[in-house]
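Morning!

As promised:
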Amino acid sequence: MLYGYAGTILDVDLTSGQVAKTPLPENLARDYIGGRGFVARLLWERVSPGTAPFDPENLLIIASGPLSGHLVPASGKTHFGTKSPATGGYADSNMGGHFGPALKYAGYDVLLLTGRAPEPSYLFIEDDTVELRSTEGYWGRGALTVEEKLKKELGDEFKTITIGPAGENLVRFACISHDFGRQAGRTGVGAVMGSKNLKAIAVKGTGGLPVFDVDGLYEKGREAYEKVKAKPGFAGWTPEGTAGITDWVNEVGAFPTRNFQTSFFPAYKNINGRAVVEHLKITDKGCFCCPTPCGKYGKTVTNLGSAYVEGPEYESIAILGGDCTLDSVEEVAYANHVCDELGLDTISAGGVSAWAMECFEKGILSEEQVGRKIRFGDLESVVYLLEKMAVREGIGDLLAEGVMRASKELGQGSEDFAIHVKGLEWTGYESRNAPGMMLAYLTADIGAHHNRAWALGHDVAGSAASVHDLISAGGSKGKLAKSRVGGQAKNVIELQHIRPLFDCLGVCRLQYMELGFEVENYEELFFLVTGRKMSWDELLEVSERIWHLTRAFSAREIEEFGRKCDYPPPRFSEEPVPDGPNEGHFLSREELDTLLDEYYAARGWDQTGIPTDETLRRVGLADVADALAPGK
Amino acid sequence: MRITLHFSGGLRAVLAHLPEEPTIHMDGPASLREILVQAGINPLLVVLITVDGKRGEKDQVIDHDARINVVGPMAGG
C-alpha cells in the first residue's frame, strides 16, 4: 500500500482515444517522491531522444505529490512537465489551485498525455470515467471564458484547466490556466497542450486517499495550519501577497525596467502591493487548504476596458509594469488580464513585448513591420503586441517564437538585449549586482527562472554596507557597493535542492521560504501521510538526484548543450546599470565564468557543464550515466 | 522603550545567527530604521515591517514600547 498516493497512473493516447490505468510503481514514489520528481523521471524514460516538442510523441505530464490533497497547509500544487517548445530541453511548471487534489480524488497521481486528438477536444474525467469530448464552441475562445463555460456546463465541482488562443497557435510561451487566474505559466506547457488539440481538462473526483495515520494527521495538520498563521511574517505578508515586495526590489536596485536596461523604476509606488490593495482588490483568494491566501482578486478599469483579474502578482508587476514601464496598477492588471485570457505567460509575453519596444526604439523594427507605432509605457502598444502574438498575426508570428528565436531571425544586434537563458525569458529580478541570483538564473534547469533558487536576499546581505557604516549614515545608503563575485555556488545549490523539493511534495513553498514554517513540520506531516520516515536531508538527496536528471535530459535533447547555454545576454556582462542603487555595476564575462566554474565543480559536473559519470552514479542514476556515456 | 522584535523565517534564512524574538531597549524615540540598525539588521534586508500588527514604514518614528515584526527578503511567487 502506497499511503498518501492515489496509486494509479492514467495514460491517455489522444490519437486513438485509448486509456490505460497502471499502478504507480513503488520505486518511482520511493526514488522521486512525486510532482516534479515524477515529471523528470517519466520524461527521461518515456520521451524518445530527439522527439520534437510539438510531435504527437512528446508527452505532457501532469503530476501531484504525496501531500497534495491532504490536510496539510497549502497542499494544492500541481506540476506540469514536457519537452519545452521554448528551450528544447527539460521543462516544467507549477500551479496552485485545486486541480491536483481533484485529480487524486478521482484516483490518479499522474496523467500522461500523448498523441494528438483528431479534432479539438477536451478531456473529461469523473472518477473512473475518462473520455474525450468535443470542444464545439470552445476552440478559439479565451482561457478564462472557456473555464467559465465548462463550469456552467459541468458544475462548479469540476476543476478545470484550459488553454487560450496562444496555446492553440503554438506560441512557445503559452500557459495553462486554472481557477480564473492561476497558471502553469512557464516553458510553453500550454503550447504542447495545444499541439495535442486539447483545449481543456475537467476533473471531478469523489474518492478518498489512503493515509498512514489518519488521527495523527488530523491533529498535526490542524496544528500546522495554526502554526503558519501565527508566524510573524503572516500579518505583514498576506495582505498584499507577493506584490508586497515591489518596493523592496526597487530599493535594492533589482527591478527590471525598460527591457532590463536599468534596475530601478521611479514610478514603482504606483504599482506596488499597496496600490493593488487600494485600487484593485475585492477579496483575497487562496489555493487548496491554504492558510495564507496570497491571491488578490479584483477589478481594473482602464481606457481600453475593464476586467476582473487575479493579481497582478509580483512577477507580472515587474515585467508588465517595470519592464514595459506601465506606470499604473490598473494598466498592469489589465495587461495581466489580457495575457490570462489569451493564455500567455505574463513573464515571457511581457519580456517579448519589452524587447519588441526596444527594437522599435532603436529602429530595428519599423512601423511597417509592426503595423503601428509602439512605445514603452503605452498600454495600447502592449495590448496590441499581446493580441498579435497570441494569434501569430503579422509581427506576432515572430514574437510568438520568444526573444531567443526572434532576435536570431531579426539580427541587427537585437540578440544583445534579448533577455533570456536557454530560450526562456527572464523573470523579475535584475541581477547585474547580484551574483548569487545571476548564478541561479544561469543554472536553473528550465531557463531564466527564479523559483529554483532565489538568492537575491543573500546577495543583498553580502553586498550592502555593514551595519556600522549604516549607523553613521543614519541607516540608509543610496548606492550599493559592487558585490563580491565568487563563493555563491554552495548557497545556490542548497537553494536549488530546497525550493524544488516542495514541487515534489505537492505543497506550496511560501510557508517555508517566506514565513519560516520549520522543516520538522514537513518531516512529520510526510511521515503521517506516507508512513515513510525521511529526514529533511534525505528528502533533499532526492531533490539533488532530480536536479542531475533534469540537466541530463537537456544534455540528451539539446545539441551542443553545456556552458554556452548557461550565459546571460551581453547586456548583463557588457552594459553597466545606468542609474539607481546599482548604477555602474555589471558582471563581466570573466566573472560569469568564475561563477560557473565554481558551480560546476561543486555540482560534480565537468567544466562544460555536463554531469560526470561518477556524479550520476553517486546519486543513483546509473542508467542515465550509461545513456550519456560517450558513443551512446 | 522596550522593543520586542520578531524576525521572519526569510530573514533568519539569510542571517542565520538571528534569534527569533529578541528584545532591545532604546533610550528615546527612534525611527524603525534606527531600531533595526541597533538590533544589528541592515534595513536593506527588510521587506515589510509591522508595528503592533499594523504596516509600518522604515522612517516611521516609534516613541513607545512596541512589538515589531520584521519580514526579510522573499521571492515574488
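Residues 47 and 76 of chain B are 11 Å apart (CA to CA).

Hope this helps with the figure draft.
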